[in-house]
Automatic annotation (TrEMBL):
Entry's family note: Belongs to the sigma-70 factor family. ECF subfamily.
Lineage: Bacteria, Pseudomonadati, Myxococcota, Polyangia, Nannocystales
Record-linked PANTHER family: ECF RNA POLYMERASE SIGMA FACTOR SIGR, RNA POLYMERASE ECF-TYPE SIGMA FACTO
One GO MF term attached to the UniProt entry: sigma factor activity
Gene3D superfamilies: 1.10.1740.10, Winged helix-like DNA-binding domain superfamily/Winged helix DNA-binding domain (1.10.10.10)
Keyword Coiled coil in annotation: no
Signal sequence interval, chain numbering: none
RNA polymerase sigma factor 70 region 4 type domain: residues covered: 115-168
Descriptive protein name: RNA polymerase sigma-70 factor, ECF subfamily
Record keywords: Sigma factor, Transcription, Transcription regulation
Organism of derivation: Nannocystis exedens
UniProt-listed Pfam families: Sigma70_r2, Sigma70_r4_2
Annotated RNA polymerase sigma-70 region domain residues: 14-79
Length: 203
């Protein structure tokens, strides 16, 4: 790779390192494994930079490499693939948006607990769902970019997202019932209600 290509790689691909690590961490649930996954992804991206089509989405391209690297690594280790579908509003509620003031210790504990439960539920989704959750609801990729990264039609992406969100709702509601935070098994519950009840139970 010549100096011009190297500069182009560094100014485009490396700008997504934080997003790649966040996605890798959600997929592996291990900082060490996530760092290894991102490092291998970047090595492959650097090696195949010449195959990138100018004008196309760098983000979708590098997440495709992350996805394929993840599948290769975990198939090799005897683990199932993890691709996902997500929940926009739910992750936005516990996401990285600006806050007006630092949360109280009780609110911080409740938020941490909710994050842990969402992560646990995410791990229980069918293999073809987890990656889409990460890409759509955490990394904010468009349907088109997710379709490119997951190498499937946009309609398939939309279907997986819808089904994945329903399954996550069901898993989280089941957890709420098991912990006395909900009483009606057939009633729908939002994560806002779940979070509020969890906070009340700890106050």
């Amino acid at each position: 790779m010549d100096a011009t290509a190297r500069r182009a790689f560094e100014s485009t691909v490396l700008a997504h390192v934080d997003s790649l690590f966040g996605a890798a961490l959600r997929l592996t649930r291990s900082r060490a494994e996530a760092e290894d996954l991102v490092q291998e992804t970047l090595v492959r991206a650097y090696r195949f930079w010449a195959s990138f089509r100018p004008g196309s989405s760098v983000r979708a391209w590098v997440f495709t490499i992350l996805r394929n690297t993840f599948i290769t690594r975990y198939h090799r280790q005897g683990r199932e693939r993890a691709l996902a579908e997500g929940l926009e509003q739910e992750f936005a509620a516990v996401g990285e948006g600006p806050i007006a003031a630092p949360p109280s210790p009780e609110a911080a504990t409740s938020q941490l607990h909710l994050r842990e439960e969402i992560d646990a539920a995410l791990q229980r989704l069918p293999p073809d769902y987890r990656m889409a959750v990460v890409l759509a609801d955490i990394e904010g990729l468009s349907y088109k970019e997710i379709a490119e990264a997951m190498e499937c039609p946009i309609g398939t992406v939309m279907s997986r997202i819808h089904r994945g969100r329903r399954q996550l709702h069901s898993l989280l509601y089941r957890h709420a019932v098991d912990h006395g935070l909900a009483e009606e098994p057939d009633a729908p519950v939002s994560l806002d209600a779940y979070r509020n009840r969890a906070a009340s139970a700890r106050s």
